[in-house]
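Continuing from the previous page of notes. For each protein in this section, the sequence appears first, followed by its structure tokens. Read the first protein now.
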Amino acid sequence: MPDEQTPLLAVVRVEQRRPRYQHSTVRRFCTIVLSGVLVVVLICLLFPAAFLPVADGPKSSYLPWANPFPHQAWPGGDGMTYEELQTILLQTPNEVEARKSSEYYTAGPHLAGKNLSQALWTKEKWEDYGVKSSIVSYDVYLNYPLDHRLALLEVDSGRTGVDLATPRHKIRYECSLEEDVLDQDQTTALSDRIPTFHGYSASGNVTAPYVYVNFGTYHDFEDLLAANVSLAGSIAIAKYGHVFRGLKVKRAQELGMVGMVMYTDPQEDGEMTVANGYQAYPEGPARNPSSVQRGTAQYISVLPGDPTTPGIPSKPGSPRVDPHKSIPSIPSLPISYRDALPLLKALNGYGPNASHFNKYWQGGGLTHEGVYYNIGPSPDSLVLNLMSAQEYITTPVWNVIGVINGSIPDEAIILGNHRDAWIAGGAGDPNSGSAAFNEVIRAFSVAMQAGWKPLRTLVFASWDGEEYGLLGSTEWVEEYLPWLSAGSVAYLNVDVGSVGPKLEAAASPLLTKAILEAAGLVPSPNQTVQGQTVLDTWDKRIRTMGSGSDFTAFQDFAGIPSLDLGFKGAPNSPVYHYHSNYDSFHWMDKFGDNQWHYHITIAKLWALIAMDLCETPVLSLNTTNYALALSSYLEGVKEKAKRSTISEDSAFSFKFLDHATSELQAAATKFDTYTADLTRRLSKPVPWWQWWKTVKLLYEVRKANTKYKLWERQFLYPGGLDDRPWFKHVVFAPGRWTGYSGATYPGLGESFEDGNVTNAVRWGEIIVERLEAARKLLEE
């Protein structure tokens, strides 16, 4: 036996080799396969990620069995091709159906807050089309007319003694304040037709001398002050036109005037006048002498929406403020030019004549009736008595909201038209748009029935209360602002859809591309060469956004790119009786659009723009157009600066604005070039074994679309414009003394108009900050 002294010897026992496992080949194969699967999974998880920007979707979405796409056919259409959808939208709208809708809407009065039956009918019609719809109401502050009077009075100079302290007047002319009932036009004879009045007019009864103030623009009043015309304590008589009616009243009130009367002068009617030999409506196309333009006297460039709830929705229990910062405190009335004639003729020979003023005072259309257009004041023997009695109440208005849900929940296209009117008719304003709107929705309904589902959500809105001051749309935007800010792509508005053959458009420059592309696909109703499209027969002028319709809250408060479209009258078109009883179904059927072709054309154009924005994988927007427009807007402000009282060696410099604008233009061009290439890559088929490339494209598209979607929001300034903070957009706003027409870079431009260099410097800094925010968004 070995012990601790014995050398260590290694003893190895060798045994016979064991037989091999009989399934070893199978086990080896399984090991290789399972290891290979593991490697493939690792490649699927890690390898595609190396090609992607950081944070573009969860990595699990790149697995072969993952499905991150909006729908299975993406980037194609869901249920039908883009071309098939386009065909449906072009072929479905028809004149017969549009005429039926118009006939319903114009059959009776539908003043704001008094048209619930029409709201219910609209909701039911949309639901019959298959569009889920609801009614959203707001409690708004507005007025309804109780009584009115306007009379030209002669002071009784034959009275003596103590009676001189309370002079008696004789009636020289009592204005009818009524529009003629026409046998040919049944809506003019309705027993419940709406009286002539101004929305948001103050109640009052004033007797005073009066002064002719031309169009009642800010500059007209400045001309009168320069001519030493006495205004305080007088009543103004103004022509409609050039600026928003409420701003005429605002300036008159600021100058101490006690009331205002407005009429439509035939000079606004171009060639189509009685003086030129045309018969008046209903026999001919000229203006009926008794027609009266109703309308709101709200200061729409100061605050749209409910004047008692600025910035918040008018719901039960909402805190309310004094409304008189945005509505008048003096009474006003609209009258016909027939009623205006005795008032104007009574001024003949008194005060300076309009011919003594600049070119903007020339061209009055009643000279053939013996009107000299003297300014006044009226002689001591004549005064006007103006009485306006209004009932102010808080009452519901009703929006109808329809929705077709898309596959992408946070990208929505909103289409809107208002339903309320000042009169029983409203065949042009707004119900030519309403009739076209129903055809747009019906066309999308036909597509849904054929199996189509939209890529992005479509929202349809029939607004109430637009005429008083964009009430329904403004309150809705204020209520749903968080959702709109996160998910809205664009707002597409049609108010007056068809009253003539001339297409007019106003839009954010982001939407120029979509408008032009759609116009190139819709056949024109007035072709001079067979096959011409709307684009071929249109001057392609697209105005900047002002106010006066329901796009205002979207564009100027929420920063949502918006447009407004409609066919308006040409110089040789029949006169459109705006806000008059003669804006009737009969007028439309005989003079306005007697074949109803333009109703259908605006419906097709509207639908195709919505389709383009809804269905293209990469949003059909363009930042380069916007950046180029910003450059031209800046040049316009420079011209204002040259005309201002601010000296060239002041503290203000355009250097930083020029630099920021140039940088933004370069970034926008680069971004649009990238998205164009992205669209091109989407059109190329991807082999099935490179599935992850399609996922990569999806997230590139989502990122690009988010930048497009949020671009307009970068130009919002939370503090708002000076003295009108509700308007948040630094690029667009209604002109403070125009209302309808738009101002660009309003904060800066108004600083130059006021000669305020300190404020100009402040606004220059604000604009540079917003331009840089827009550039950084594109470069992220």
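Done with the first. The second protein uses the same format. Note its length before scrolling.
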Amino acid sequence: MAASGRLDPELPEYRNYVVSRPVYSELSFLEQYERQLRERRTVRDKLAKCCSCSRKRTVRLLKSFFPILEWLPKYRVKEWLLSDTISGISTGFVATLQGMAYALLAAIPVGYGLYSAFFPILTYFIFGTSRHLSIGPFPVVSLMVGSFVLSMAPDEHFIIMNSNGTEHNVTGIDFAARDAQRVLIASTLTVLVGIIQLVLGGLQIGFIVRYLADPLVGGFTTAAAFQVLVSQVKIVLNISTKNYNGVLSIIYTLVEIFENIGSTNIADLVAGLLTIIICMVVKEINDRFKHKIPVPIPIEVIVTIVATAISYGVDLEKKYNAGIVKSIPRGFLPPAVPSVNLFSQMATASFSIAVVAYAIAVSVGKVYATKYDYTIDGNQEFIAFGISNIFSGFFSCFVATTALSRTAVQESTGGKTQVAGLISALIVMVAILALGKLLEPLQKSVLAAVVIANLKGMFMQISDVPRLWRQNKIDAIIWVFTCITSIILGLDLGLLCGLLFGLLTVVLRVQFPSWNDLGNVPGTDLYKSPKDYKNVDEPEGVKIVSFHSPIFYGNIDGFKKCLKSTVGFDAVRVYNKRLKALRKIQKLVKKGQLRATKNGIVSDACAINQGFEPDEDPEDPEDLDIPTKEVEIRVDWNSELPVKVNVPKVPIHSLILDFGAVSFLDIVAVKSLRMIVKEFQRIDVNVYFASLKDHVIAKLEQCGFYEDNIIKDMFFLTVHDAVLYIQSQMKTQTAEDPILEKIHLIQEYKDPLELMDREMIEDGLDVQDE
């Protein structure tokens, strides 16, 4: 075997092999190898097993629901504790900063971002299955929360009139009432998101994330990054705009930013630009020299400390009217009951947020699980995030998932387990208890700049589009479509449109599948397309069609078209033309202008042959009184006919349908296949099936596919079995022409066309008009 893992064609043992076995149809194979019946458990048996209880089963269930019972007893204190401590401290600093920054996206006071970076970790530590995820706010999810919060509690709902002692009153905004309402809405939304995630996990619906394909997620997160950028630019510029939400909201925001660009606060702009540049440069250094730097430089923390000190020392708020954080709650707030009466208004938004948050977390978790050779349970992750969001929602938090940058920091600094996450939560707790007052002079533009600097990874996904276009154009279109719709329509509608568009592409690919004809590779049992390979021969008189899709009501018409295209003729049209020619021949025989013998049709030399009338002339149903006598007529349809009817030539005697790639059939497909077989049999073309899966054959039996002329001997294990069977049949046939039409004409007058039409109606076959 070669070093690459491929078989070396030069080695003698790999040059060829010989297999000797009988030609198997499905029926002959079943006669020799009896099918083993599988034991089917009843619903009662399944429920009994599900509800049975034993010590071993109880322990297994407890460990599956509380994964901490599985990994904590195996924790290697001496090997892992130091690494987890260093990782936890580093991640905690980043989580503190990002929690405050992402609170701006969620449209709530920055202090509540610290709570959102703390509480979810406590429950995920117990219920989560990933060792490396850093739980907390994420910009995309925070923005989705913020968009909903702004739609429910815009500034216009909190306008108050202030009297200044003159005739005119001054309008203002009750910021305290506004912020309190927004925190209530965000926390209530978080609880509902957690309930939805918990229910989906309990119902074992973790598979739902599979419908969020990578191109869809890439386009969606890139659009979200653009939305985040726009929302943070106005904070960096310290420009006040209306809170737009919904369709074209990003366009309206950009227009208003450019209209008010003249009111930019220079101090905030300079601080924001410096923060963005410094953070991006240092992050690039961390990436390039990550193998040489034991711990990534916590640049966000450093910049925040320096910016806070400068703002406090220079007093930027008073001298330059800079926007600062101002008040941060010190300590923990008591738990608060969410506003349950708002659930009905936030059902749609909460479902989309629940799925997106879960999809992001599981996608990141699978990357690190694969890297470190362990598995994560998708359904248990739904449960873990559901419990975390329900728990944190009672403590005025907004929706938690995982952040790529925090998780990368936790892993790259040596984090081994969720102990690192727990230590990071302790660092956030210290910040909540002790640092709130110290961070109040911090400029909001610095926090917004930290958010923007962390968007680089999501914007870099744009470079995936050319690669996707080269690899799979449909995936590239899904990426672009989802991105554009999410930017224009908003994240919730954009995600829905992207999901529906992705499903539509799947439907279209199934509805218009590919197929090809096959030929034999000489001297082998291999079959390839003659259009794609040289020296591939089609068996004489045999057409092999390979169909690469399930067959159902949506693509059965496409299947019929593929058959016509491959065999080169329409079986129904051929039958109609032959029927018309036979009617003309019968008329001429009745008139005595043609004589029918056992060897064929003989023209009367003394009579004028009126059979060569134009093909489109109407038929004359005139009844001729000819003595009753049975006459046998033989017609060679591939030779010149004594009547002028353009009967298409049929160059094949057998058709093989390779259904190896057909995964299922529905009742419409089964009925249509039965009609197709009959249509070809009427024109003396035998139809055979090859390589069908057992469950597809079972479906044919269930739907009553078999009839008098449709038997199990038509089904073969492989295409080669079918070809060998046909060739043996052709050798044993008599010298009689296989495409010779034999009919018996009873000269006692009955309209043959009427009889044949009635027979076709009984068979359920359509006869096309000329």
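What the second structure shows: Residues 605-631, 734-770 have pLDDT under 50 and may be disordered. The first strand starts at residue 135 and ends at 136. We return to this in next week's lecture.
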